[in-house]
Amino acid sequence: MKLFLNQEWQAANALRFDLTNMFVDAIGTAGIKEQEVETNKKAALEAEDSLKQKRPQLAWRDLPYGQTAVVSEIVAFADKARHKFTNFVVLGIGGSALGPLAVQQALNHLYYNELPKNLRDGRPRLYVIDNADPERFAALLDLMDPAETLFNVITKSGSTSETMSQFMLVRALLKERLGDKYYEHLVATTDSKGGSLVKIARQEGYRLFYIPEGVGGRFSELCPVGLLPAAMTGIDIEELLAGAAFMDQWIESKPLAQNPAYLLALLQILAYRKGNNISVLMPYADSLKYIADWYAQLWAESLGKRNDLTGKEVCVGQTPVKALGVTDQHSQVQLYTEGPFDKVITFLRVEEFRREVKIPTDFVELTNLAFLGGHSLNELMDAEQRATAYALTKAGRLNNTIILPRVNPFTVGQLLYLFEVETAFAGELLQVDAFNQPGVEEGKNATYALLGRPGFEQKKVELTSGAQKSARYVLSV
Fold this sequence. Notes:
Elements: H1 7-12, E1 16-18, H2 24-27, H3 34-39, H4 41-54, H5 68-81, E2 87-91, H6 95-107, E3 125-129, H7 134-143, E4 149-154, H8 161-178, E5 186-190, H9 196-204, E6 207-210, H10 224-232, H11 237-253, H12 260-273, E7 278-283, H13 289-303, E8 305-307, E9 313-316, E10 319-322, H14 333-338, E11 343-352, H15 367-370, H16 377-394, E12 399-406, H17 409-430, H18 438-450, H19 457-470
Helix pairs in contact: 4-17, 5-10, 6-10, 6-13, 11-17, 12-17, 13-17, 18-19
């Protein structure tokens, strides 16, 4: 039996939460009163009930459970492909890129791509191209032999301009270099029922994995979007899903006071209503650095909305900020401790790192250095996080800490699922649709118009007219 199926092991690897410094007793007048939580309990219960009613339509809620066949298929494919390819390249944007990158950084060697292949257990290097920058894209192709590379094209709609542009370039290169076998170097992850990509993939014979219906991009890391890249680099995706299932059962079985997702969401929204319109996620571990990037999209795109569910204009949403401890103690924490009272800082603290690095006992004559000797970098990181939380608390600034006993697929699965449900619950509290992104569409449509996509001619006229009107404010030498 796998170790993560053992209940005792699960309990030892459960996330923990310290919310003390969100309340007035810890930080003073800027904090939240327990009475405020009690006053909003009715709204929280209504939000909980609403989420339960919506659950059948929220397919991402069932990803921890219903994928046994898909997982087996992915693992089998990855085990076979590892012997054929030196490089695995994800072509995607938004959740299709941020999720795979976050999980890779969290769970593999921090210099995974630089390791010799034998130290990667024969697994391919992983690259994630999440931008249309021509220099970056060309630079990646400079690095690798197409004959040794498998490209994973990820877009649910099958028409994402950035991703499909990359796909078209890669496909042309593969056809030029490899001839009739080019299709063996392409795998598509997309919707099963429609869109250009699934049509092309079926016609040309690419290996296909499907994004389940009802799973949006920023909620897609626990489906083939994220599971395939993870499996390709040797990550235990069954354990990842087990962690998500563990968190789901915790959330579904506990009342508000012991429910981490619901309580975190409620505290964030109460803080937001008191003027704290910035949510900082600050992991104290390089392995969790890109979790903050992934969270930033999840929180911003889900909660930043002009209209509420009734159509009323409300223009709500906290702005997410990503930070990294200890690095950003030296770039951002000055602002957090002495700047405006407009932020909530959430720390991610790791109790047990995968490596211990001891600091030598040296420079005994220099008291400002000698004290470090005999300690470890592990102790230093822990002290830095606790000290930053202390400084913020002393300055009366809202902060809380999520504690990971260690970073492994089980704890990362919990964390991803926790943030997804917290976001959904926050949307219910704000009375907005957390699963659409209408504000993104105007920019997409303008891009289509500028590049001449049929059907967007009127939009191009608007853009041209607007550019002429604003030209008098453009500065140049």
